[in-house]
């Protein structure tokens, strides 16, 4: 693309809207992942007895295992949500903005 098209894209108010939506969404998902990971680390550091509590009487599997698995699976799901929204809404807006700039 030429410099003129880049200028038109950046001047489009919908481009600012796209940047804002994409950034807010990425920051929100990043915060959710970081908070859950650090919450688990704080729980391990300051209340390890909670994490080593058996799931049931006589079980060797502790509650920390499903909590860790849930955090990992949740991170995968959030990544999938981001990719889905990026390939849908954000790409659609991006293509519309480029189409307007190339007219």
Account of the 3D structure:
The protein is 83% helix and 0% strand. The protein is mainly alpha-helical and 103 residues long. It has helices spanning 3-11, 13-46, 48-51, 64-102. The protein has one domain (3-102). Helix 1 packs across helix 4 and helix 2 (13-46) packs antiparallel against helix 4 (64-102).
Tertiary shape: rod-shaped
Fraction of residues in helices?
A: over 70%
Question: How many discrete domains?
Answer: 1
Percentage of β-strand residues: under 5%
The residue ranges in which pLDDT falls below 50 over 5 or more consecutive positions are none
Class of secondary structure makeup: mainly alpha
Largest sheet composition: none
**Distance, first to last CA:** 13 Å
Q: With helices defined by DSSP (H or I, 4 residues minimum), what is the helix count?
A: 4
Radius of gyration: 22 Å
Number of strands: 0
Order of helices and strands: HHHH
Mean pLDDT: 93
């Amino acid at each position: 693309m030429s410099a003129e098209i880049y200028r038109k894209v950046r001047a489009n108010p919908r481009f600012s809207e796209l940047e804002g939506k994409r950034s807010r969404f990425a920051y929100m998902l990043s915060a959710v992942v970081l908070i859950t990971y650090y919450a688990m680390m704080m729980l391990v550091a300051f209340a390890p007895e909670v994490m080593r509590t058996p799931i049931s009487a006589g079980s060797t599997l502790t509650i920390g295992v499903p909590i860790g698995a849930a955090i990992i699976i949740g991170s995968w799901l959030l990544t999938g949500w981001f990719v889905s929204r990026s390939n849908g809404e954000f790409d659609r807006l991006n293509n519309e903005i480029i189409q307007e700039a190339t007219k």
